[in-house]
Write a structure and sequence with these properties.
- This is Bacterioferritin-associated ferredoxin.
- There is one protein chain.
- The protein contains three helices and two strands, in the order E-E-H-H-H.
- The protein is mainly α.
- The chain has a domain at about 1-60: Arc Repressor Mutant, subunit A (Orthogonal Bundle).
- The chain has a two-stranded antiparallel ribbon with strand order 1-2.
- Bound molecules: FE2/S2 (inorganic) cluster.
- The site of FE2/S2 (inorganic) cluster has 11 residues, from loops.
């Protein structure tokens, strides 16, 4: 089954590249171009490379860390008062 239809790359080929040492979608792209055209296959390639694995370099560190628990509640705004 094709993973990347733009370059006719199959799941089997991605798995073979992973066995040969590719660990990220970028490394897969460097050996077979998969993911370098429309990009719609990148998530599927990531899934094939390792479900539940540590975040890849490309995605690690994006966004801010989520605040824990009560810190998510909106801060009181003294300028609004209690009037309705
Ligand atoms: S389907 Fe892989 S780059 Fe388009």
């Amino acid at each position: 089954m094709y993973v990347c239809s733009c370059f006719a790359v199959t799941e089997q080929q991605v798995e073979q590249h992973a066995e040969n040492g590719a660990r990220t979608p970028r490394q897969i792209a460097s050996v077979c171009k998969a993911g370098t055209d429309c990009g719609s296959c990148v998530r599927r390639i990531q899934a094939l490379l390792g479900r539940g694995a540590a975040p890849h370099r490309e995605t690690a560190g994006r966004g801010r860390p989520l605040p824990a628990g009560p810190a998510m509640a909106p801060a009181p705004r003294p300028d609004l008062g209690e009037a309705a």
